[in-house]
């Protein structure tokens, strides 16, 4: 799932490549991704892209005051093309759910006849990609419920957010209503960097553990943003994977201590950790808690 660093990089890419262009056409190949009916999608036609930003893991494309808000979910992505096919995507065929066509290079001194833009795609059979068209981002229910952005929370802020919490720290980190922008992958990386167990009670961290957690959030997310921003959208997934030390590395040696990275599975997801670095050398019980991540 794209998390805040990748969505930040996508927003940067759109600011560099889409801002100043007009929306010429929108092709909807999968109507189920559309979560709003008013304003009508036709209102975007002729609107100019004036900005792109991020709210947690939501991408926000501002088109003359209308906001195209996208949540990429687990398997969604934004795929940019400098020359989109003139044929619309075929409903039910392929990964493209929605296509946004923009004014061509001829309008900016480039080659006539080319039509840039982007596809919103989703792989697999379990669909979660969602798109809203709203006049203010806060009209999207998920954005309205977001906690403060993880990139903006300092050490004292973490202490306030976690005070009295009885949930496991892993659960707290991915709770978007508590703090926005961290998902399964970067929470694994943060906990590893902070040398904290995913199962530790969030509200019972010592002062020293809170210091480590705050530093780890800042360092992991800042590093990921620095690696990602400025890269083409097509390279962001690979860049994310290349920077991970424990997530997705089950059975491989921990790059810090050499112990074997282990996994806990629950429902259709899993998280990874290093026993030596995080749990005093003791493997965690794999209780398959479907409620752990939501």
Automatic annotation (TrEMBL):
CDD domains: BaFpgNei_N_1
Domain of life: Bacteria
A biological-process GO annotation: base-excision repair
Keyword DNA-binding belongs to the record: yes
Alphabetical UniProt keywords: DNA damage, DNA repair, DNA-binding, Glycosidase, Hydrolase, Lyase, Metal-binding, Multifunctional enzyme, Zinc, Zinc-finger
GO MF terms, alphabetically ordered: 8-oxo-7,8-dihydroguanine DNA N-glycosylase activity; class I DNA-(apurinic or apyrimidinic site) endonuclease activity; damaged DNA binding; zinc ion binding
InterPro entries, per database record: DNA_glyclase_Znf_dom_DNA_BS (IPR015887), FPG_cat (IPR012319), FPG_N (IPR035937), H2TH_FPG (IPR015886), Ribosomal_uS13-like_H2TH (IPR010979), Znf_DNA_glyclase/AP_lyase (IPR000214), Znf_FPG/IleRS (IPR010663)
SUPFAM superfamilies for the chain: Glucocorticoid receptor-like (DNA-binding domain) (SSF57716), N-terminal domain of MutM-like DNA repair proteins (SSF81624), S13-like H2TH domain (SSF46946)
Catalyzed reaction equations: Hydrolysis of DNA containing ring-opened 7-methylguanine residues, releasing 2,6-diamino-4-hydroxy-5-(N-methyl)formamidopyrimidine; 2'-deoxyribonucleotide-(2'-deoxyribose 5'-phosphate)-2'-deoxyribonucleotide-DNA = a 3'-end 2'-deoxyribonucleotide-(2,3-dehydro-2,3-deoxyribose 5'-phosphate)-DNA + a 5'-end 5'-phospho-2'-deoxyribonucleoside-DNA + H(+)
Family named by the database record: Belongs to the FPG family.
Protein name: Formamidopyrimidine-DNA glycosylase
